C-alpha cells in the first residue's frame, strides 16, 4: 500500500504536522506585511465532525468488496487541494461529497462500476491523488445526476514492465510519484517528471491533466513521455500502440491527454523513462531588472541549449519564500545529463546571462553540492514546501492564490505589466488592503514563457471565496484578452472552465462534444470538466 | 506565382528533363543487377492524349473566376507521385480525375466551394503540391458522390507576418518549400523543415500529413513547429490559439495534424521558425555490421545529444545510390547550431561510435565544407534526387517501392530481419527474380527508430500494380504484426488505409468518425482517407 495524504492538507497522514519552520516564516512575513500581530486562526476540523448528506444510492452486493460509503472516505474524496477546497476543509463544509468511493483493483472493477453508474444515472469522478488545485475532483455535477461515484485508482500502482532497450516502462495509473520512482530506481531509471504535487499525485492524474514537470525546457511535459495508453470508457477499453513517433493520422494519445477524465479513466501507460543524471551544473544568476532577466531567458531558450532548469523568480517571490533578501531577481540555471559533462552548455548560457546584465559567482560551479546550498538549495526545498502553504494561510484568513498562462514572447512584457497592475488593484478592491504579488517562470519555450503569479491578501473568514474569485477573475480575464491560455499546467478542472470556453474555438468544442457522446453516451464521466455541457449541440 | 511541377514526374515544368546522370546511373546499376542490356522503356505520354471522362458537373457562374474543368488541369490534379500514380501516368490512364479544379484565392473562395460541393453531393479533395506518395490526392471516392472538386491551395502562398521576438511566422498553407524559405531568408530565419518532397510540397500538405523533416532527432516533425492553425471545414472555420505550450484540455491542433484533409482544409498556420545555423560539424562513420551501427544510433539517441543528422544507411543503399562501394554501412552524423560551436556534442557522439566499432576520419571535421564532399556530399544530393527515381524506373518496368515504420528498439532487430526476409521472398514471388533491397533510418527517437526500406524488382508492364502490391503488402503486414505503425512520415493516403484500420483501436476510430460527422456532416472531405468509412457507426 502507498502512504496516504492527510485529509485536511499536505503530507502523509501519519506525519500530519505542518512543518513548524514554515508556519513561523509565514506568520513573520505576513504579520509584517499586513501589520497583524495575531492572526484570526481556525483550528483543524476533525474529520468525524464533517457534515455530509446521506449516500443517495446503495452499493450492489457484488461490488461491496471494493466500494464503500464510509464517512471518512467520502470526506477524503469530496475535495482536492484548490483554494476553494481549503476554505471548505477549514469550515468543515462538504456540499458535494461522492455517495460511493470505489477502490478499483483492476480494469474489470472499473468496467463494473461504469455499468452500475450508467444504470443508476450516477456521475463518475476519477480520483488519483486528489491534489487538483482547480476543482477537478470535487463532485459538482448538477441536479441531472442521481448520485456520484468516485473511482479511486490508487490500488493500481505497479510498474508492470520495464523495457531496458527502448527505455520505457509500463506503469499503472494509480502509482504516486515516490512509489513509481522507487520501483524504477533499482534499475537505474527515472521517469524524470516532477510536478510540484509529485509526492501525492499519480501518473494517471498527470496524464489526464497534461501535467508539467519541474524541468524548465524540452522534455518535461507528461505529453512527451507518453508512448501509449489504456483508457476505460463507458463504451469500451481503448488501447493505443507503443510507437516512438509516427504520422499515421491524428495521434490517439492526444485525445486523452488533457481530457481530465471526461472521456474515460486512464488505467496504465507505457512511459519513456531515462537513466538517472550523473553530470550536473547549476548556478543562480542575479538581475536588477526583471524584464531584462526574462530577456536572457528568451535568448537562452532560443539558443538550442535546453537547460534542465531555467527559472527566473522575482524579488518578491524570493522574499516571501525566504530565498533571498537581496532585492534582486534570480534566475536558476542548471544543466544535467546521464551521459556527458555539461560545462560547454553552461558556459554558453552564462555568456548570454552576462550579455544581459546578469551577475553570478562562477566559483560555485566547482562546488559539487552547490544545487543544495544558498539560494539554489533554498529554492529547491521551497518548490515542494509551497504545497503546505494553503494549510497555513487559509485558516489565518490569508488568501493565497496562483495563476499561470502560456503566452508568446512578443506579448509577454505587456501582459506582465497588465497582470501586475490588475492583480494589485483587484486585491485592494476585494480586501481593502494592499496584497503581496510576485511572478516567476515555470517553463520556457522558444516561442514564449509560462509565467506564474502568486498573490497573498488578507481576507475575512466567511468572505474568502468571493474575495479570491474577484482577484482570480481579474487576472485570468487578462490572460484571455492578451491571447494567452487559461492555464499552462495546473489543469482546467471546474475553476477554469469559464476561460477554457472563451479560449476554445466553438468548432473544436463541437468536435469534442461529439467525441464525448461517442465514448460516453450518457455523459457520466466527470461532468462539467473540459467538455462544455451542451448535449443538444453534439 | 510559384513555379509548377511537371505533370509527369519531378522537377519544374520549364526544366522537364530528368537529370541524365541519374538515368545512366540507374540503367548501369540495374542493368547489371537484373542482367538486362536494354530496358523495355515507355515514352513520356503527352498530356493532351490523356484519356479523361467528361466533367460531371458544370461550374456556377459566380465561381468561374477561379474554378476550371480544363483538360490539362484535371490531369495535373488526377494523381500524386506514388508508385501507382506513376504507373497511371506512363499508361496515360486517369480513371479518377476531378471534375473541377478550384484555384482558391481566399478562405471565402473555399467556403463557397464547400457550399457548392455540399449541394452538389461532390467530394472535395484538398491539393497542395500533389506529391503524395500514398494515394492521398487521387480522387478515388466511390459511387456515392456525384462529382469531385479538387481544391488547389497554391495561390495561398504568402508569409503574412513574422514575429521576430517569439521567432514565429504566420504562413499560408499553399506555400511551397522553396518559396516559403525565400520569404523567410531575408530576415535570417528558416522553418528548418525539409521533407524529401520539399521542392514541390506545401506547408498545408506537411501539416495535414504530419510530415517529417530531414533532421534526424528532436524538432524535425512538423507537429512540433505548429503553434496554431486555421482550418476551413464544411461547418465553419476553426482557429486555434497561438500558444507556446499549454495543458488546457486536449490540444486542438493535434486533431487536424494528420487528418489529411478529411476534416477540413488548412489555410494558414503560425509556425515556429529558427535562426539559420552558423556552426556545423558532420562526418561519416563506417560500420561492418548494420545492427551494430544501429546500436550506436540507439545509444546516441538516448544520450540527450540531439544531433541534427543521425542516419544510418546500409551497404546496398550506399551502392544503389552511388554513395559508396566500400561494402560498409554508413552513419551520417551531424550537429548544427545558430548559437554555439558544436564540438563538445560531436566529440561525445564519436566516442559512442568508436565504442560500437565505428570507423571514421576525424580530420574531416577540420574541413569546413566536408558536408558537401565525399560520401556525405553524395548522400546530401541523393536525398533530393531520389524523387526523380520513379520517372526513371517505372517506364523501364522496374518497380521501385518504399515502406517505413516506427518501432520500439526492443522489437527492431527482429522486425528488421523479418522484413528483409519477407520482402526478398515476395519480390521473387511477384516477379520471378531476385530484387534489390536496402534499409536506412529516417528518424531516431530515444525509444525507437523509424526504419525505411527501398526495394527494386524487375516487373512487367501491365502487371506492375499487382506485383508492387504483393511486395508492399507482405512487408506492411509485418509492421503491424510486430507492433509498428503503417507509416512513419509518408502519410496514410488511400494506399495505407488497410493497415491504419488494423493499427487503430476501434474506440478511437469511433471517436474520429463522430468528429467527422460533427465537422463534415455530409462526409464530403477527402473521403476514404484517415476516417474509416462507416457512417452508420458514427
Describe the structure.
Two copies of one chain form a homodimer. Chain A has helices at 20-34, 71-76, 83-91, 107-120, 177-184, 203-208, 222-225, 253-256, 290-301, 315-320, 343-355, 374-385, 389-393, 412-431, 464-481, 497-503, 506-519, and strands at 67-68, 100-103, 122-127, 147-152, 159-163, 168-172, 189-190, 226-233, 236-239, 265-272, 274-275, 279-287, 309-313, 329-337, 398-404, 436-445, 448-458. Chain A is globular, with a radius of gyration of 23 Å. The longest helix of chain A has 20 residues, at 412-431. Helices cover 32% and strands 19% of the residues of chain A. The mean pLDDT of chain A is 95. Chains A and B meet through strand 9, helix 8, strand 11, helix 11 and strand 17 of A and strand 9, helix 8, strand 11, helix 11 and strand 17 of B.
Number of spatially distinct domains of chain A: 5
CATH architecture of the largest domain in chain A: 2-Layer Sandwich
User: The CATH topology of the largest domain in chain A is what?
Assistant: Uridine Diphospho-n-acetylenolpyruvylglucosamine Reductase, domain 2
- Biggest beta sheet attributes of chain A: 5 strands, antiparallel
Mean pLDDT across the residues of chain A is 95
Percent in helix of chain A: 25-40%
User: Low-confidence spans of chain A: pLDDT under 50, at least 5 residues?
Assistant: none
Instruction: Kindly report how far apart the N and C termini of chain A lie.
Output: 42 Å
Report the oligomer. Answer: homodimer
Can you list the strand order of the major beta sheet of chain A?
Answer: 5-6-10-8-9
According to CATH, the homologous superfamily of the largest domain in chain A is Uridine Diphospho-n-acetylenolpyruvylglucosamine Reductase, domain 2
Tell me the structural class of chain A. alpha+beta
Tally of DSSP β-strands of chain A? 17
Cα shape of chain A: globular
